[in-house]
User: What shape does this take?
Amino acid sequence: MKALLIYPEFPDTFWSFRYALKFIHRKASSPPLGLLTIAAMLPEAWEKRLVDMNVERLYDDDLKWADLVFISAMSVQKESVKEVIARCKAAEVGIVAGGPLFTTEYEAFGTVDHLVLNEAEITLPRFLKDFENCVAGHFYTTDQWADMRKTPVPLWGLINMKRYASINIQYSRGCPFNCEFCDITLLCGRTPRTKDKDQIIMELESVYASGFRGQVFFVDDNFIGNKKKLKEEILPAIIEWMDMRKHPFTFNTQASIELSDHKDLMEMMVRAGFDVVFIGIETPHEQSLAECSKFQNKNRDLLASVRNIQKSGLEVQGGFIVGFDNDPPTIFDTQIEFIQKSGVVTAMVGILNALPRTKLYERLKKEQRLLKETSGNNTDFSTNFIPVMDYDLLINGYKKVLGTLYSPRHYYERVRTFLREYAPSQKKLFHFRFNYLAAFIRSIIVLGIIGKERFHYWRLLLWTMLKRPRLIPQAVTLSIYGFHFRKIFEKRLG
Ligand code: SF4
Assistant: This one.
């Protein structure tokens, strides 16, 4: 049996980092972790190949070779998914599909032969058993949560690691919170489930053995969902392994804001090699936080929380939302002011959209305010429901937020604010000097000579050299990110 695993293409988005990847000669941010894990669950005797359309082309010969195609995708890959399905149909090859897009929107994919949904550790073995007995059905689902201690190590051998800027690992699934707009609890549950320390070390070892060095992304939606296990088991094991292997990786992840209340946890994360954490800050407007049940962000000084995390040695990337029912017309200026003050350089601001099956979606359905499905692109200039605020006011306000935040002046100002607060780990800078050097030289040409941000670029470099010389690599990296964000938004803002 020949299995072809296909990862559909992402459009150019905030998170694609397409324009930044060119500086380090990489094709995509990270590999398809879900499909690589699925590959490890398929029978050993099967021949397996993987085509990640974000780094290579899918040829008709690939489809001719395959007996069965496996597709996994997120909502934002929807357009590419439709094309892949049409090509598989034309090539008369059977399709098995799973992952977040198919799990939440399966009704839209009736032509897929086998929908293997929810947690693959549970549904895939059922499908494979039926397939072996020639009785494979159309729909496999479960309301159970898988035991992650049984999840295998991804088959890294199916990809060329050198094409990716970072490699990803999953430690946990599920989040104890229950934000109204979020589909994570729907897909992964509210009780965090975790892998064991031996599994994590085995996965790190497998990435190390592949020769990859650099950034490893823990893809968990809330890495600190189970703090006790992290502090007592996982982080000590990672710290020991990183010391033993002489710090081959830096780590980034996602967490909830109360990380800032746990000094010991932040210290351990930094010692383990974490240097960036994405946090859903959403909004400084209390009534809107209450509306979306983001209670962990309420009644706290959000600016102080962000600073606390930055001071511990973790860069904070932030998610922000406009378009809540409770947002006043001043929300756009409030968000701009907050983000500028916070020094959250990578600030992903989106308009609230209702993802299928979320609590928000169900509420809006009842209120007869739903208009269409979402595109899955967090920075789309549209919303899929009737907002309380005037629609044009919302869209124009949103454009103003993006236009301001990603103008070179405001962006570079934010970088300086961040660098003033940031206290990075000593170990980090030593290992990636060569990468920094190559990207630095290119940044001088693209940003310092040709780019419209050249004044701000040189001003930042000079400022950093004088005030925080150790942070030159961060200044260059963030300048390159800024170039990507500017390109993405400039194209769309016109
Ligand atoms: S904290 Fe984050 S992952 Fe958890 S429910 Fe809220 S938005 Fe989702």
